[in-house]
Amino acid sequence: MVRVSIIVPVYNVYDYLDKCLNSIQNQTLKDIEVIVVNDGTKDTSQEIIDKYTEVDSRFKAYIKENGGLSDARNYGMKKAKGEYIAFVDGDDYIEPDMYELMYNKAKENDSDIVECDFTWDYPNKIIEDKTSVKENLLIDIRVVAWNKIYKRKLIEKNNICFTKGVRYEDVDWCYKLIANISSFSSVNKSLYHYIQRSNSIANTQNERVRDIFIVLSNTLNYYKEKGIYEENKDELEYIYMRYIFGSSFKRVVKIKDKILRNQILDESYSSLLSNFPNYKENKYLKTIKSSKNTYFKLMNKFTYKLSSKIFRVL
Question: Do 193 and 218 fall into the same domain?
């Protein structure tokens, strides 16, 4: 029985792929399948993939035209047969007991999703991310796909997939799943190594940062279509505000083109007001005591632009 199907999208990660696949092959949980999707890579990564498929029948290789990370993950999910599904990016690697610990936790609690802690691996330092869900899953969940396992039947029943052709693909993926789950669990151990590369998509800032508007809009529309928008409106409003003033903002200020940078800043603030004109009345903004919330409260059209100039030079 395949307990976990691990999907590995591969695109131009030759220098990292062997370590990635080796860390998966050496998992203490043996009842796995590894679906490696060559997403039209331009390097010789397929040579490394072949090395594993030739000696380990659990490894299954597929080659497709380049369609991006979301497309490769969706492709892999269609091939998966495991009770649970997991994702590992081809330039990252994992601890040997990752899936054994997470699968055991899933079975213990009959969890739809199990997540673990992870590390940000920089060239000269490692930072552990031990943020955990405290009270509210929508607000507290770490919005990344690869530090979790997901019950495959949940994904298939609700026909959930990654939005193709956009950045921030993990955002609406995670929030759509949350809208459908009954049980969520955590393993409080850093098991996934998220490698930080200066030339990675996540660290390349250009006009595609606008994609955050698409994925946030997808999320809001999904909750409206399911008829659960009003009961989750406070959470969705807080999430939207946090992206506009937080992670998305940090990416926008790194755009070198000043005209483009200012255009997207204007669009960002306008999109927040368009969807949530009374965001400053949000209950989480008022009740959660944090430096971030203090910063959020200070934001208006003027201070938002001023902050962009300050963060630009930091």
Answer: no
